[in-house]
Amino acid sequence: MRARMWAARAAGAAVLVCAVSIGVSAQSPTPPAMPGHPAPAPAPLIVPGRSIGKWTLDTTLQDLIGQNQAQAQLNLTEPIPQFQKALWYHEWHSPNPPLIALTPAASVRVIALGTFDKTFKTPEGLGVGSTPIQITAAYSDPQITLRPGVGPELLIYNDLGIAFELPYDAMVKGYSVVERVFVFRVGQASTVWVVP
What we know:
The protein is an alpha+beta fold. The chain contains 3 helices and 13 strands. It is globular and about 40 Å long.
């Protein structure tokens, strides 16, 4: 009788351990690599104040150039339409998903990263294609809203380190859906954009 009771308890504990380990692995966005197999690709995640996919704000411009090969560069000598003067705008389209990096002039320090790829999303599911209603439902009202008169609207969450750019849509006579998402260091929006 005792042997059956101990066997039943052991079976119950084994089921519990399996259930817990399955629950933990289901929550992990990037499962660990299996021996003899390549590591899985990182999840296309936007982490406000930190990263877009595998690229972080700690990455240097040289690292980005090395990982992403050819780039388009633009020296922002004027705020176009809302960026600070003297920033360099770097953009890559391949071989990886679209990526934008902003650096101060004559510096390799990345102060903001951006993307216009629909596959990258925040933990709340926000990204390119999201609406202003979805953004404010997840993050409430932005600390800074830029409407330069001509060009896109920017919803900036300075306390989170994320900004959403929405182009003007003449069909709806307003700003429609997110076209680009930027991450920057928390509290540092004024180093990237001309803010009031």
